[in-house]
Amino acid sequence: KNVALSVRSPQKAEKFAAAGVTVKKANYYSEEELYESFKGTDVLIYIPSITHPSYKRVGEFENAMNAAERAGVKHIVFVGFIADHEDSPFKMAPFFGYTVRRLASSDIPYTYIRNAMYADPLPPYIPELAERGRLLYPAGDGKISFISRRDLAKAIVKIAAAPQLLGKKYTLTGEKIYTMLELAALLSDVCGQSIVYKPM
């Protein structure tokens, strides 16, 4: 299958271009750039930006949806987040509440993917945690599932490339759910120092 990557700064995607991936310039703030980039696209995988405050992402997504509709995109795969439920106190939950409704109001068929917390930031975080001796998460007594970005990417690509998997909703998580006490104990074992959980 032909794969194209739309990015704000093409020079940062040179390794993908060298691997044979078509790289296009498209900024979420420019509907015209998005439109030009999306032309000829069968399946569009949309990964939200990390713009803060999160309400600015609504405008970005609106630009992308308008561009996709104009460009005749045949299917959208939206990559969201697990904390998108209506009573979620998560700061980005309002954005995800908007996106799923915007997708539903479009004539473009869509697939909605919700991912768990990224596991990738944990290993580089360990030296700082060991120095502080504390794990800070706003999880209370709750549990969190983690998943690596690599595993997410593999699953998202598999879904996008298989017509029989499109048009559904998926939640992608790791195999285990951790309490923060369990996670603190695991990180303590890894670094050989005591790390205790302090709820934020």
Describe the structure.
This protein is α/β, with parallel strands linked by helices. α1 links the parallel β1 and β2 (22-25). The chain is globular and about 55 Å long. It has seven helices and eleven strands.
SSE layout:
Layout: E1 4-7, H1 14-18, E2 22-25, H2 31-38, E3 43-46, H3 56-71, E4 75-81, H4 93-105, E5 110-115, E6 117-118, H5 122-132, E7 134-137, E8 143-147, H6 149-161, E9 169-172, E10 177-179, H7 180-191, E11 196-199
Parallel strand pairs: 1-2, 3-4, 4-5, 5-9, 6-8, 7-11
Antiparallel strand pairs: 8-10
Helix pairs in contact: 2-3, 3-4
CA-based shape: globular
Major sheet: order of its strands?
3-4-5-9
Average pLDDT, rounded to a whole number, is 94
The N- to C-terminal Cα distance equals: 46 Å
Low-confidence stretches: none
Rg, Å, rounded: 19 Å
Count of discrete alpha- or pi-helical segments spanning 4 or more residues = 7
Q: What order do the helices and strands follow?
A: EHEHEHEHEEHEEHEEHE
Structural class: alpha/beta
- This entry's quaternary arrangement is single chain
Tell me the helix content.
25-40%
- Beta fraction: 15-25%
What key phrases describe this protein's structure?
alpha/beta; four-stranded parallel beta sheet; three-stranded mixed beta sheet; 7 helices; 24% strand
In short:
With 200 residues, this protein is α/β, with parallel strands linked by helices. Helix content is 39%, strand content 24%.
